[in-house]
Write a structure and sequence with these properties.
Layout lengths: L1 E9 L8 E8 L4 E6 L5 H8 L8 E9 L2 E2 L5 H7 L4 E4 L3 H4 L6 H12 L4 H14 L5 H5 L8 H13 L5 E5 L7 H18 L2 E6 L2 H7 L2 E6 L2 E6 L1 H7 L3 H8 L11
Parallel strand pairs: 3-8, 3-9, 6-7, 7-8
Antiparallel strand pairs: 1-2, 1-4, 4-5, 9-10
């Protein structure tokens, strides 16, 4: 479904590439985690996929194919068609992406109608249903709230409900749980894994937490200084890796693996 082929990402004001020779294939229903220290290039990879690198960032080498078509050739119109429907993103802080002075419902209805042919009433009903799907049972109530009236975990669920509404084939998530307490974190991760079960969504998730990556992913890529230093399935990374940096990261995981049992 997604083929990232040997890409290099550069920002204008820096001689050193932010990402170098990065490749990754994602099949339907596959979950891959990118793990690595701050500045290793994780966000640059997924923003390159979504065609919105910050600043003056560009993909200077390689190609990114989605369903066989290069995303690098996309026009603004192509992106408007794909983003939010075929490829969606969950941010670290969904609340920050919402308009603080408008209710969740008014923003959700607008988002749904922007991408699909629904009446206001239909969009509202479907929005409420989607909130139920991400275990916000009192959807009507949530729709009538303002972002500041919801907890961080609730806002993250609303963000997932937005991102999943059109059942995208690919979901990109940049540290979607790092601002949450461990219990809520585990629930949100559970929701994401359920999306894969229910809809066959392919997921690329960024996390600092190797235990979390091991818990949820089919494949893990370890990054450092813009390069992939190690990759493999959970068993390989946890038990058979020969890479020094992976061993260092593993040594930093608390023995009980936090709330995730490695
Ligand atoms: N807008 C930008 N302009 C210039 N350089 C940037 C920009 N964004 C990122 N970089 C550089 O690209 C490199 C990779 O950054 P990136 O944000 O992709 O890393 P990251 O792994 O997501 O880090 P973090 O864990 O802190 O989010 C870093 O050296 C960073 O300084
Ligand atoms: Mg980042």
């Amino acid at each position: 479904m997604l083929e990232i082929k040997n890409i290099t990402v550069r920002y204008k004001n820096s001689d050193k590439p932010a990402v170098e020779n990065f490749s990754l294939n994602i099949k339907q229903g596959e979950i891959c985690c990118l793990v690595g220290e701050s500045g290793s290039g994780k966000t640059s990879v997924i923003r390159a996929v979504l065609g919105n690198l910050p600043g003056q960032g560009t993909v200077t080498q390689g190609d990114i194919l989605f369903e066989g078509q290069s995303l690098l050739d996309n026009t603004g119109n192509d992106w408007r068609r794909i983003r939010g429907t075929e490829i969606s993103m969950i941010f670290q802080d969904s609340g920050a992406m919402m308009n603080p002075v408008r209710t969740i419902g008014s923003q959700f209805v607008e988002y749904i109608r922007e991408h699909g042919a629904y009446t206001r009433r239909e969009a509202w009903k479907k929005g409420v249903q989607m909130l139920k799907n991400v275990r916000l049972p009192d959807g009507e109530h949530i729709m009538n709230r303002y972002p500041f009236q919801l907890s961080g975990g609730m806002k993250q669920r609303v963000g997932i409900a937005f991102a999943m509404f059109f059942r995208p084939k690919l979901l990109l998530a940049d540290e979607p749980t790092s601002a949450l307490d461990v219990t809520t974190q585990a629930q949100i991760v559970g929701e994401m894994m359920k999306l894969r079960e229910d809809y066959g969504t392919g997921i690329i998730m960024i996390t600092h937490n190797l235990a979390l990556a091991a818990y949820m992913s089919d494949r893990i890529l370890i990054m450092k200084d813009g390069r992939v230093t190690d990759s493999g399935n959970r068993d390989h990374i946890l038990h058979h890796s020969q890479a020094d940096y992976t061993k260092k990261l593993l040594a930093a995981v608390p023995p009980a693996g936090g709330s995730y049992h490695v």
